[in-house]
Design a protein that fits this description.
With 483 residues, the chain is α+β, with helices and mostly antiparallel strands. 55% of the residues lie in helices and 14% in strands. A hairpin with a 2-residue loop joins strand 10 and strand 11. Helix 10 crosses helix 17 and helix 15 packs antiparallel against helix 17.
């Protein structure tokens, strides 16, 4: 593959076997080349958006203030179909294609689309007919009137141990619920709808006591239904407003069965984890593309630095690993697309998806961080300067490694689905005829040995195996000529 192909997310996807030649996707990419990238850069330079909490008469309004161009850039993705195409085609593939193209230019901007997708999916699956009739059409608009979604789970104690950390309480109030609590890392603050984790009064103080609720920005009386305490200052992803949300007797509707809440919450997180994979691979592609553009023109010792053997070999290695990362990430997309409408209890196909999603999120996010760091090194001192954008990719990549669960969380969740559901055996069956038989059997034996260890040792020594399993899976998928 020519390195020039890396300048286009659409061309790269086609080169690695993803069906990405649709006219609407090409036009979306072309718009970013014409206008979107410049807007994105300006928003990143401007830093944290403003929060106007009160109007001129002292009434609470909690309006997030971005430049008008930001809203034009944001709504462009919704018009292109990041939500409505999913339901028109009954497939998540269009959404993840648009998320990939978006993240190539602005990984932070992909977040509002991701959490909106992660709101509309459980609403469509678990909302009653009245709830869907009230809210779904708003989120499926094809113009600037479209509503956005958000997923608010994390509180001040953190997001890994949801069973202990979620203190938001849900009280029954006729045909709806009232939520009271605080969400500490609330991406896409200001969204018209949010899915929120809360615990019903008297429910168990563990993950089994959690339920998932739909919370609109405004209540039935038209008044604000939640308030934004403040917006967060962040090193990156400035194109998504992240804030602290106060729920005070806020109107809410239960989604699904209360006792299934943790499963619904994990469904939401897994949609976002796969989107995170797309963002990581797209960002890594962009970092390599920008590094190549620089290295092909920067001269040292009489020739472009790209022509020096050591650096050229590094480029070739990065490109090979980019191919593997893309295969792994898109395999998670394909598997999710087959099972995303399942409800508990889940099939074996769903458990296979879960393991691949954890492997992919873990491996692609780390690849993005290391690739962005390497791209800065290619640029040298110039790479540390904000005016040339390359340092931005490292800032954005560092967030991707944390969003929707750190590497530590992915390893533990992956271990859990292997122990409880035998997902590793499903994975090895899935990789049969894609990986060499001897290597497959060797990796299978390593996993079984790990699972047979005492608990402390099993978890304490997990990292090397999990990393190797992710790399093995990515390489096996890269060898498959049918993909």
């Amino acid at each position: 593959m020519s390195f020039d192909v890396l300048q286009s997310p659409v061309q790269f996807l086609q080169q690695v076997g993803i069906c990405a030649g649709q006219d609407w996707l090409r036009e979306y990419e072309a718009w970013f080349e014409r206008e979107g990238q410049e807007i994105s850069d300006a928003v990143d330079r401007a830093g944290t958006p403003w929060l106007r909490m009160f109007d001129r008469w002292g009434a609470r309004e909690d309006e997030i203030l971005y430049p008008p161009e930001y809203w034009r850039m944001l709504k462009h993705g919704y018009r292109a179909g990041v939500l409505w195409r999913v339901f028109e085609q009954n497939s998540l593939i269009p959404a993840y294609l648009l998320l990939y193209a978006t993240a190539f230019y602005d990984a932070g901007l992909a977040c509002p689309y991701t959490v909106s997708l992660s709101t509309i999916a459980p609403l469509s699956k678990y909302g009653d007919e009245e709830l869907k009739a009230r809210f779904l059409p708003r989120m499926l608009q094809r113009d600037d009137s479209v509503w956005q979604g958000a997923t608010w789970m994390t509180e001040i104690k953190g997001g890994s141990d949801l069973g202990a950390a979620v203190e938001t309480v849900a009280q029954h109030d006729g045909n709806k619920w009232r939520l009271t609590g605080d969400k500490y890392f609330a991406s896409n603050a200001g969204a018209e709808l949010a899915v929120v984790a809360a615990r019903q009064e008297g429910a168990a103080q563990n993950v089994r006591g959690l339920s998932l609720y739909l919370v609109p920005r405004r209540g039935e009386d038209g008044q604000l239904n939640y308030q934004i305490r403040r917006l967060k200052d962040k090193i990156a992803t400035r194109s998504v407003p992240t804030g602290e949300i106060e729920l005070r007797h806020s109107e809410a509707w239960l989604l699904g069965q209360a006792e299934h809440g943790i499963y619904l919450i994990l469904e939401v997180l897994n949609l976002s984890r796969v989107a995170n994979c797309m963002g990581s691979v797209a960002l890594a592609q962009r970092a390599i593309a920008d590094a190549y553009s620089f290295a092909a023109r920067r001269t040292a010792f009489g020739k472009p630095i790209f022509e020096h053997p050591l650096l050229r070999r590094q480029f070739e290695d990065r490109l090979q690993r980019l191919h593997a990362a893309s295969r792994l990430g898109w395999e998670a997309v394909r598997l999710l697309d087959k099972v995303w409408q399942e409800k508990p209890p889940y099939s074996e196909s769903y458990h296979l998806f879960r393991l691949v999603a954890h492997l992919a999120k873990y491996w692609t996010a780390e690849f993005a961080v290391q690739t962005a760091k390497w791209a800065m090194e290619v640029y040298g001192g110039v790479g540390t300067l904000e005016e040339y954008r390359v340092e931005r990719w490292l800032r954005e990549a560092m967030i991707l490694a944390i969003w929707e669960g750190t590497p530590h969380r992915q390893m533990l969740d992956g271990l859990e689905v292997m122990q409880r559901k035998g997902a590793h055996r499903l994975l090895f069956q899935h990789l049969a005829r894609k990986a060499p038989e001897a290597q497959l059997r060797e990796m299978e034996a390593r996993v079984e040995r790990q699972l047979s260890l005492p608990e402390v040792e099993r978890e304490g020594t997990l990292e090397k195996l999990f990393n190797d399993l992710a790399s093995f899976t990515a390489d096996a998928l890269s060898r498959d000529p049918g993909r």
